[in-house]
DNA sequence: TATTGTTATACTCTATAACTATA
DNA sequence: TATAGTTATAGAGTATAACAATA
């Protein structure tokens, strides 16, 4: 009997678990975000977009699409909705009149710290049983998945 | 200066990374699944449903919805599509004439081993840089997220 | 009266293809 | 000729509310 494989964890089992954990956490996030009563709707994809714009301060729709890993058409759709809700606005790029730059509105900037703080609070709750060392370990192991990848980090 | 927190990894950073890893892996999965040329369409949600039915052999739509963490109406929608594609079929539950039992078709049973083997192959590729010990570690850390949760495992 | 699943309807995310304006 | 973003259109996944059949 090959004892070395007796208790081995299959790669596919690890990734199944990864998916389940992600779904679980996403559901927690969405529940808590709803209860925040923000002056605008914030789904997962919208928040993801928002945070990329926030980190960049200003960004082309173009570049945003590639950072998010979606098509430009999808960004148009999301931006339409967010602009309607007063979360961000389009301005023409002075350097290239084909391009459009996105900025967050004051309102969004005001709310975003609430969102981030709820994110941090939920995250702490979910990982409450983890020691600092275990958090670091989990972070290191997840980073390892991206090891040796050339392309820009996708959010 | 508080050196103990100097290099600490924030919980929110760990979960951000978790999300990014999951998105990345999901994209790999979907790409490879497409190239399998199955006789039916298999998106993430459809595959998830399929695998739950497969593990259960037969299952009520009801119970399926709760295992998947979606509403019954959503299961109706998915099952309609999968039945149209000849992947599964509805039969009345003899014990409760309100209920409907789902079974996979022969065709689905024949294809599912191909799907599983591709899943395992992709998983091995993604975790190729991981030692057996690291896989076990990652599995243990992810399990810890669910620690002390009462409810049934959600897929 | 409560539960199972459906019809009717709608919203969000995503995409492809054809087009406009600019480079 | 190529790029940035849009209009037009479509499909998948998800949901709520009202309902029919059954328990």
From TrEMBL, chains A, B:
Gene3D superfamilies according to UniProt: Winged helix-like DNA-binding domain superfamily/Winged helix DNA-binding domain
Keywords for the protein's UniProt record, in alphabetical order: DNA-binding, Transcription, Transcription regulation
Ubl conjugation in keyword set: no
Recorded GO MF terms: DNA binding; DNA-binding transcription factor activity
Superkingdom: Bacteria
InterPro entries assigned to the protein according to its UniProt record, in alphabetical order: HTH_MarR-typ, WH-like_DNA-bd_sf, WH_DNA-bd_sf
Pfam families, per the entry: MarR
HTH marR-type domain residues: 11-147
Record's protein name: MarR family transcriptional regulator
Species this protein is from: Paenibacillus chitinolyticus
